[in-house]
Amino acid sequence: MTSANEGCGAPAGGVAASAAAGDQAVVEGRVIHDGAPVSTGYARLLGTGDEFVAEVPLGDDGGFRFFAAPGSWTLRVLAPGGLRAERSVAADYGQVTKVEVTV
Q: 18: which residues sit within 8 A by CB, 6+ positions away?
């Protein structure tokens, strides 16, 4: 049996952050399927032309968090059973961009 962290050095859900973004650009959210959190899978942050930037395993609560540069990003969620979703997100300094993804 493989764990959610196997093959990815990031902590599940991403690095913890305080409630305020301060001078950071933060993209965070939760992944839901049939009303329940998806705790097995990955969230990826992609740049222009689907350029891979970062990936974190989903937390037990389906959560993820990225510290990003300001700008437009694509958030891609991959979970077992062929569950997949993409969302366009924008990040800016001093803001926490919250995203709920339903797969």
A: none
Domains and CATH numbers, the chain: 25-102 (2.60.40.10)
Give the CA-trace dihedral at 59, 33, 55, 8, to 10 degrees.
60
Tell me, what's the pLDDT at 42? 97
Q: Is the dihedral of CA 57, 84, 94, 50 positive or negative?
A: positive
Tens of pLDDT, residues 25-83 = 999 999 999 999 999 999 999 999 999 999 999 999 999 999 999 999 999 999 999 99
What's the gap between Cα 96 and its chain centre? 12
What is the secondary structure of the chain as a DSSP string?
Answer: ---TTTT--SPTT-S---SS-TT-EEEEEEEEETTEE--SSEEEEE-GGG-EEEEEEPPTTSEEEEEE-SEEEEEEEEETTTEEEEEEEEE-TTEEEEEEEE-
